[in-house]
Structure formats: structure tokens, C-alpha cells
Amino acid sequence: MSDLKETLYEELKLKLGLIVDGVRHEKGIFDRVLDGNNALRRKVSSYFEGGLAPYAFVLPHGFHVGLDYRQDSPYEIVEKNGVFSVTYLGKWQADISFPTPPLFYSKTTSDGVRMKNIGNDSSSGSPDRSLVISYSTECALTEKGKVCLFCGIERNSKLLGEDKCPALKNPRLIAETVKAAYDEGFKHITLTGGFVPERRELEYYLDVGEALRAELGVADFYGTACIGAPADLSVIDKYKETGFRTISFNTEVWGKQYFEIVNPGKVEMCGGYDNFIKAIEHAVDVFGKGRVRSNFVVGLQPKNVLFEGLEYLTSIGVVTVASSFHPCIGSHLEGHRSPSVDWHWDVQLRHAELLSKAGRTYEEIFYATPGRNFSHEIFQIENGDHPAFRQAGEKLAV
Ligand code: SF4
């Protein structure tokens, strides 16, 4: 293994640790960085005992890490003479910097709504840029008392204050935000959000698709509709007709019993586990291999059960996503612990291998997933296409 490749893997594993264990910092440490840089501030800043914080920080080789404050984390961000670093149990790991927010974060829609509150940059610093539109800051499962066990939407929704958005964001304002992002080089959007009473979100996706086609002047677009399985599977065909090139159903865990425990609301809203899996299979028939995604919250079940699901879904052409479980404040699993970083690292490496074995490409993963994840990084490191290789080449050439 080349030195740079080895360094990239070491740093990627550090990123994984920072996701799984979170990071702490002294209150006020970021005040000077954030002063006058509103776009860098994370939305739910009052969420953190650490006070105001940037939405992410950057490791030396460009890996962006979403800042997840955890009081009991072994990782800490410290500052000395204006240089910020990450430590582990007090031992220096790496100096860090902060991302440059996209231009659209500083823009407003024609109705004066801040675009930052409509779309989130999910590119993690990659030149392949993507954004996520969460159409709502609420989920109908909250009132039913059936939120997914790992989800912190209830508490987030209470804390958003002025950043709280209406039950459904206006499709026209979403289209304006996406246009602004595409104008600065973004190439893919994911539309996602919680359930809406009477499953009104199913029709709403079609409205957003129409608005996007009109605003972008295209017949279809690189966009992923991320939805709960509909009882009537023909809805899936309509999403394709509306212009979405990819679609997603997040299983979160594999196996009926796990699904029913972790996703009680999805059981009720989506016709149960069997219908959920049928929806994924039908979507592959309609959209094609490499154009259907399913997320797993990795760390909620034994590895052998998890891989049974990952193996089945990748074998039929699904782009699976292995999101490492980290307990959200305000979720039913607040205070729980995720498996060790080594456990998660093994999952990430084996999962990338599965996607590769199933014939998936980096491009398919990019266009089917909401944001850059470990599979993107591992694919690009293995292919030699990682931006860090290019940067190193450029530096050598100077
Ligand atoms: S469906 Fe589950 S994960 Fe999605 S917003 Fe609702 S509670 Fe959260």
C-alpha cells in the first residue's frame, strides 16, 4: 500500500471515530471562527452544550466531519494560537480547518427565505457536489408515539426556533434553491423528510418533481426521492415519470423482528416489513440496478444479520448505505453506546467490497446516495481517483 493510501485510510478511520464517538469542545472556542460567518454556523446550535459551533470541520486530507457534540467523547477539539486540533484522550491526532460554505447558503429565495434553511450541502468537501432537501422538520410518527428508535427529530423540531420550517416546504422555493446550487456546480439532490398525516408526502414529491423540472428546464434530473414504502407500489412508477432518476427506501435494519422494533411507525405507515422489501424490489424493476438506495443504521443488530440484508439487497442491484449508529440526543436510544470503532471499520470495508462485487460504480453510488459516505471514499481510494491523490500530484508538480 502506498504511503498516501495508508495515510488516507488512517485518517478515514479517525473520521469514523469522530462520527461514532462524537467530539467535545469548550464553550465559545469557535466564536472567532463563526464571527461574521453565519453560513458556517450549524442550524441547531442551541442543541449543543458546547454553544455555537460550525456545522463541520475538515481533517488534513480533506475529509469533512459533521460536528456532533458529545460531552463524554474521548475526542476533543482544542485551539492554540489560532490553530485548531483534534485530540484523543488528550493526545494530538490532527490539525483541522473549517469548510467553505457553498454560495447558496448566503442567498435567499424570491420569498426572502434563507436557502440555507431549505437545502444542506452534503458533499463533504468533494468536487462531486450534492445537497439534501429535508422538506419538513417534523414527522407524523411523533404524535403517534412511534418514531424510529434512533431518530432525534422530535427534540430537533422543538429546538429549531426561527429555523423551523412549515409542515411542507414550498416546492417552488425548493426548486429555486436547487437551481442556485446547480448554478454553482451541484449535481445531485435528495428529497427527504418525515411522514405527513394521511401520507400527503407521497403526492408532495410529485409536486416538487414538477417544480424542479420547470425550474431546471429538464425532463428528468439527478434527484433521489427518499420515501417510506407506499401501500400502492404503482406510486413508485409515478416518481420516475415525474423526473426523479433514483429512489430510496430506508430499511434501517434487516429482518422483520428487528424492523418492527426499530421502526414501529414504518410498520404502520408502510404496510409492514414485507411490503417495504417488496417496494425496494419493485423499484429496482422500475428504476434499474444502481438507481435504488436503502440506508442501514449500522450497529443496531448483529453483524451476521446486517450482512444478510446488505448481501441480499446489493445482489439485486440496490445501492446500500451503511450509516454508523451514533446515539442522538432526544432519541429513544439517547445514552446508548455504539459498537467499537474497529467493529464499524470492518463493516465499512466489507460493505464497500460488497458494492464493488455487485458491480456498482462510484458514479452510481454518488447519484443514489444523499451525501458522501465511506463507500465513496473507499471506492475512490481504491480506484486511485480520490481528490487527495490529485492534490498530492499537483503539489509534487509545483
Ligand atoms: S420516519 Fe423515522 S427516521 Fe424518518 S423522520 Fe420519522 S421517525 Fe425519523
From TrEMBL:
Coiled coil: none annotated. Keywords: Iron, Iron-sulfur, Metal-binding, S-adenosyl-L-methionine. Its cofactor is [4Fe-4S] cluster. GO terms for molecular function: catalytic activity; iron-sulfur cluster binding; metal ion binding. This is Radical SAM domain protein. It comes from Treponema primitia (strain ATCC BAA-887 / DSM 12427 / ZAS-2).
